[in-house]
Amino acid sequence: MIYLLAIVFIVNATDSKIVRLLENMAISNNKTPTGMLKLLISVHDFVLTAQWFAPFVIIAIAVVYRHLCINLVGTLRTTVEKIWLFGLPFTLNRDNNASMFLNTLSILFQTGFTTQKALEVIKYDATPYLKYQVTGMEWRFSVKGKLTESLHCPLFKDNVSYLLSIYMDTKNATEHIDEVAERIDEAVTKRITSIAKTINMVGMIMTAAYILIFTLAN
User: Fold this and answer.
1) Structural domain count of the chain
2) What gap in Å lies between CA 21 and CA 40, rounded to an integer?
3) What are the residues whose beta carbons fall under 8 Å from the beta carbon of 214, sequence distance 6 or more?
4) 186-204 burial string, b = 16+ CB within 10 Å, else e?
5) 3-state class of 86 per DSSP?
6) What keywords would UniProt list here (predicted)?
């Protein structure tokens, strides 16, 4: 983000004093701007136009994503999560919900809640997405009577479901639940860090490219 702001600042600071001056000089000599100068002018025009509506677009996208991450459920949600890039916020939201669910479940078990009661408590104040998942768990638990079977749902990745199916049958199940939740949190943190590094690298490349174009055009 800081690199994009740097480009916007440079464009606004140099547009009238340098870029438009070069453009006017070319026009006064009956020449059409070409090459790097033409590219630089195009970049400036785009940035100067986009800077006014881009913040509103970003806010709108954030609001829409937040609403959908909380409310989108079922097969459509699972399908959206598989879409490259577009589904990334949904998978991160799912993993956060999974970690929060397991942490809460562990606390409730330690305080003496039964499985059925614990699921009811979690569902009571959950988001529509988590409530949908917990409702499915309640139904499977009422039919099969085993928590390990209940936790086989889209809320958890396959490897997480596998670990839970093993740990739930051990004596220190709550400790293992906390361990799995911690692993999920670590995976989410690593993924977010990786995304941040990628965005940072793209920003550096864009800034360097703009400076190169600006230099060559002059």
Assistant:
1) 1
2) 12
3) 10, 14, 40
4) ebbeeeeeeeeeeeeeebe
5) coil
6) Cell membrane, Membrane, Transmembrane, Transmembrane helix
Residue pointed to by tokens 């740097």: 6
Rounding to the nearest 10 degrees, give the CA dihedral for residues 101, 119, 108, 185. Answer: -10
Q: Is 80 helix (H, G, I), strand (E, B) or coil?
A: helix
Domain extent at residue 144: 1-218
Rounded (10°) angle between helices 173-217 and 2-14: 20
3-state secondary structure of 152: coil
Short-list 130, 73, 72, CA closest to 101:
130
Q: In the numeric block, which tokens belong to residue 34?
A: 């070409």
Cβ neighbours of residue 9 under 8 Å, at least 6 residues apart?
A: none
Q: How far apart are CA 216 and CA 134, in angstroms?
A: 60
- Rounded CA-CA distance 214/197 in Å is 26
* Spatial contact of 136 and 123, defined as CB atoms under 8 Å apart: no
- Please, what are the averages of pLDDT over each run of 10 residues along the chain (218 residues)? 68 66 66 68 76 85 94 94 92 96 94 93 94 95 88 92 84 86 94 88 77 66
DSSP state, residue 1: -
Residue 115's identity, in one-letter code, is: T
CA dihedral 14, 17, 19, 25 (to 10 degrees): -170
Which among 86, 77, 80, 123 is positioned nearest to 104, based on CA atoms?
A: 123
Q: What's the pLDDT tens digit per position in 151-164?
A: 989 999 999 998 88
